[in-house]
Structure formats: structure tokens, C-alpha cells
Amino acid sequence: MPYTHRCCRRHAVGAFPRRGRRPLPPSRGCLPEAAVVPAIAVVPAIAVVPAIAVVPAIAVVPAAAERSGRTVGPNVPPPAADPVAADTGGRDHRWVTDSRPLLMLDVDGPLNPWLAPEARLAGYAVHRMRPPGWEPPHDPLLVRLNPAHGPALLALGCELVWATTWKDAANAWIAPVLGLPALPYLDWPDGHHVDPTGVHWKTRHLVRCVAGRPFIWVDDEIGPTDRRWVARHHTGPALLYRVDPAVGLRPDDFDTLAAWAARPTPGPAADKP
Question: Is the pTM higher than 0.85?
Fold first, then answer.
């Protein structure tokens, strides 16, 4: 499915197939009525030389992103960056890695403050990115990222997981800019569907995947309905942390996340104070 990023709200459009060429008409020349046509020697067919295989160009991975706003990446993620819940088609998974709290991380909003005026983006650089679905002739995505966020996330002591519509493309485009390794990611079975109960479309699948482990969910679209639903359906500690997409993650946010990760609060889901 093409990307639908909140920072742009446009769908990528696939290219239409080129029209095939019409075959050439047969020769319209004709012989005079009285002409005698001699027998024509049969010439064996000339072997057709197969076309030379076209070798695709090798993708050049640019160096780390700069503040120039030029097009970035992609960087191919290592094989370790697998989708979560691949064993059941992305619908149910039991984590068996370790007991650290999980940090389920959105991109647009927390890391990319897409609603922020540029004048307020100290420490951020604007990058032109072309994840799948945003190839020419479409305009690239303008993504604002702060490279200091990578080390701050790694210092939280959590197991980081992409919980974003970028899915595995976050490892190719976002992680290299922030200095993050390839991370596991949620492979959404039903992206952007409307839940009749008002729960966010990510909530049910995310809670199924964490399977009772302590977790932090950082997103800009978390609401009261999601907190109530998680409190009823998740058996372990949880922190649902909404981030303003006009601000993004700030140093005090990382302090709050680190304090909770060190001693996950049992009971109902909490929210950003």
C-alpha cells in the first residue's frame, strides 16, 4: 500500500503501463497480372540473437544526512530488521526476546514534528526522502529529524520497535539519520481502518503484539478511548505517551520516559502528564 503520511496527506499514484506499438502493415506492392513468379529458394531462418540482459544500476547509498535538505538514503536494513508477527501474517505475536520494556515508536509527530513552524526547529534538519510510493514524478517527503534523538532513545533501556506507517522503510530512511540500528517493526494488517468503537486503528494490533509485556507507546494520535481500551485489555504496565506534532519529542519527554522505563508503573495505562 502506498504511504499516506500525515505530513503530506497525499497518496502515491502508480505509473500507468505504456501503450504497445501497433505492428507495421504488410507490404502493399503487387505483381503485374502476366508476370511469372519464379520459384524462390527457401532460405533457412536466421537465428535470433537474444537481447542482452540489462544490468540494473547499483544503488548508491549516500553518506549521513546533511542540513542541506537534499534527498537522503535509502540505506538497506540488515536482515535482523524483521516484521513483528511474521509467524501469523502480522496478526498475533508473542515476544520472546527479553524482559525490557518495549518502546513502540511512531515517526511522524514524535520524531518528525510535521506541524511545527521551521523557525522553532532548533537542532532539526530537513531531509528530502523517497520511500516506496514517493518516487518521481511525485515530490519527495520533507522530513524533519533531530540526530540527537537517536542516542537519547538508545539510552532509555527499552527494546525499540517501529510502530509507524513507515514500517520497514523507517530502517532505510529514518534510522540512519538518527544513528539507530535496524529495528523490528509492526506490520499493520489493516492500516488506517475506522474502528467502530473509536479506538485508534493501531491500538488493538499493538496490544496483541506486546502480549502482556511492559510497554511505552509514543504517538501523536493517542486519545482517551485508547487509554481506556488498553487499561481493559493489557495485563501489564503501560505508558501511553502522546506527543504534540507541532513540538515533537523534547528533553523533558526523554526524562519522563527514562524514569518510567526504570520502574514501569503497574496497573492501568498512564498518559503524558
Answer: no
